[in-house]
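User: unspecific monooxygenase. Structure?
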Amino acid sequence: MEPLGATTVFLVICVSCLLFFSVRRKTSGSGKLPPGPVAFPLIGNALQLNLRNMPDSVHKISAKYGPVFTLSFGSERIVILCGHKAVKEALIDQGEDFSGRGTFPLADVLAKGTGIIFSNGEQWKQLRRFALTTLRNFGMGKKSIEMRIQEEARFLVERLRNTHGQPFDPTICLTHTVSNVICSIVFGDRFDYEDQKFLTLINLVEENNDLVGSALVQVYNFFPTFMSYLPGPHKKILKNSQEFNSFVRERIKMHKESLDPSCPRDFIDAFLIKMEEERQNGQSVFNTDNLVRSTIDLFLAGTGTTSTTLRHGLLLLLKYPDVEEKVHEEIDRVIGRNRSPCMVDRSQMPYTDAVIHEIQRFVNLVPFSVPHAVTKDVRFREYVIPKGTTVILSLQSILHDGKEFPNPEQFNPGHFLDENGAFKKSDFFMPFSAGKRICAGEGLARMELFLVLTVILQNNFTLKPLIDPKDIDVTSIPNFVILAPKPYRLCVLPR
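Assistant: Predicted structure:
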């Protein structure tokens, strides 16, 4: 038995060495990838990363290897970029080279390369161009969508009044408000807050957002082939997504039955008209699968991030009542209480504008953006990154840069104010990422954040926490995708 045991150990060592050097060849070789911690066979750098707090792990590795380094997720090579200088060089100076969409296993299974967010190449360019044009045609960045946000904000105010000063969780009402704005663009109309299908959609979104942060889902993104055979939260995410797909397909069917090509009502109508125009083009990217996924992309992007930012914002104002009071004073001075806030007011409200920017900077909502990829073999600094390599950006390293934002871990609207109290722009403000893959809905999100927050504070509401402000915990729930605040309740009281 002893010789057999020795032989087995020897074989295991040989196989491990072969796998080790195989991975090393993938992460170095002719590509001359940036340096990084040694990757173990099969598992890559999984054991060196805290899957519950990836931003912290990346920060520690960057301190040792510099702003550009390589990690292995399983056997997949990932290049990480940290700091404003490196990210700007990639996304702005070499924007076309870094404009691909990187590998994100769970999203790859859900989107299958379709839609606006997770597609690549010419398909992505055509779909994004069409989406931006259509969003503008239906009011994004114009007075019409501003009026739509104002209307939805009035519904929100009514719901807040109906709490009658009792404690409540703001998650659902904020999500409904923001979601209905994008619904009016995508589906052609808002939903009643009691509409059962609408409530089901929101519940699916909220549940998936919670599940995405689980450790097992992060393990799935490291080892998708292995994990696909096992039960876990990734299975529930897939099931919820299928239900969401069915809803969108049902809406598309309804649109087809009532479509008037001379008068498109929304994004779905516009896409259906484009499909008909390109019906004879066998290579057209305008097909049903891309319509379904593009609609879902717009709905999810227009619902989750902005509503979560607003939840962070209310929590921070509870934590810092002196900041809330200064915003109240500016609203009273510039807008008063007899008309709705509008976007032209923002230029006269530097403190409120600074508060909203600081909320976005402080919470670092999407710490790694969405993965990019290089579209060809790219020479970047002294390295050569092979075509198709996934590139992840650490937006936290920019938004929490201590030189640009002194004491970056502290919430301070002064980060965006000059010595005279005027609003101060910063090139380091990148919550929407940058370059060719910058968030398509940035303009809409900025408008919603300003109008919704000012409407809440304008309407005779003072935010009241249930505990002493100094005891409020504003740290986020650890997550690789979106950093949500811990659940909380508050009261809104007449001023």
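Strands lie at 68-73, 76-82, 100-101, 372-373, 378-380, 383-385, 390-394, 461-465, 490-494. The domain at 26-494 is CATH 1.10.630.10 (Cytochrome p450).
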